[in-house]
């Protein structure tokens, strides 16, 4: 049942993004920012954690999940002090950011871009 919840919740998040792309004049980068900020705001009000408990990776892998991780790390760090609030957000997302950089670099090395003429 965990897989079904992950699939449905992750799919709904992606569907919302696709609907925003198709029905508004928002660009993809703006939607990316909206989703990350939405994850932060939902976690700040403790509304995203129940979704993560239900869907697991279906809720943590899409873009709102990145905002959730930032907010969760900052909130946990804030209990220790102001500097830990900043470093907590960085620590909680470091693995994902590192993976994105490494895999992006590998793809850039392995494949040649085609001209769009």
Features:
globular, 117 residues
Describe the structure.
There is one protein chain. The protein is mostly helical and 117 residues long. It has one domain. It is 82% helix and 0% strand. It has helices at residues 2-23, 28-44, 48-55, 57-60, 63-78, 82-110. The mean pLDDT is 91.
What's this entry about, in short?
The protein is mainly alpha-helical and about 120 residues long. About 80% of the residues lie in helices and about 0% in strands. The protein has 6 helices and no strands.
Q: Indicate the radius of gyration in whole angstroms.
A: 16 Å
Q: Give start-end ranges of low-pLDDT stretches.
A: none
Helical residue percent band: over 70%
The chain-level structural class is mainly alpha
Cα distance spanning the termini: 47 Å
Global mean pLDDT: 91
Helix count from the secondary structure assignment:
6
Reported for the largest beta sheet, the result is: none
Total number of distinct structural domains: 1
Beta-strand proportion: under 5%
Global shape: globular
Topology pattern, helix = H, strand = E: HHHHHH
Please provide the count of β strands: 0
